[in-house]
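Chain A, query sequence.
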Amino acid sequence: MRSVPGWALLSSGCAPVVLVGGWTIAALLEGPAYDPITQTISVLGAYGAAGFWVMTGAFLGLGVCHLLTAWGLRPAALAGRVALGGGGAVALVVALLPAPSSGGSLVHGSVVAIGFTLLAVWPVMAARRGGPAPWGLRPAPSLVVTVLMCVAAGWFMIELHHRGAAGIAERLVTCMQSLWPLVVVASCLCHRDTDAPPQ
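Chain A, predicted structure.
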């Protein structure tokens, strides 16, 4: 099995830090007018928002992190790597097509939905069937994570439609989606160390 380069641990580890750091700083810049419970992350990156450049930079950084991780995650099945890279590319597009300050946008919402879908299905698409595989690329955990991400995304859609706790639901989904590549890369690196012959 092909090994994962060490730099993939850096790219996958930076993804959640960039995302959470970005929305935290952007929310602080926005001040008390922003409600992280009910308002989405896109509000922070909307034109005219106080944290517009911070959130745009976070989306760009997240996209680059996912693209690099997909490139370095060689033990994963190709379809999963393509889906993860696609999710990274969508993050770049989200940065280039922010939501308008007046509210929702069909184009922005469609791009976000594509990104959520790609990042939700990549774990099960990346799973290795047959033979020993790192824990993060085994079918069972990959399927469980994909189901959990889809359920969380469904919850986000419900909350968004009912104007409920959409901010919390979105943060749960995006945290899961940004953390899972790190888990997979770490499991691949541990698996490689376990399989290495004793010195």
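The radius of gyration is 17 Å. The chain has a mean pLDDT of 91.
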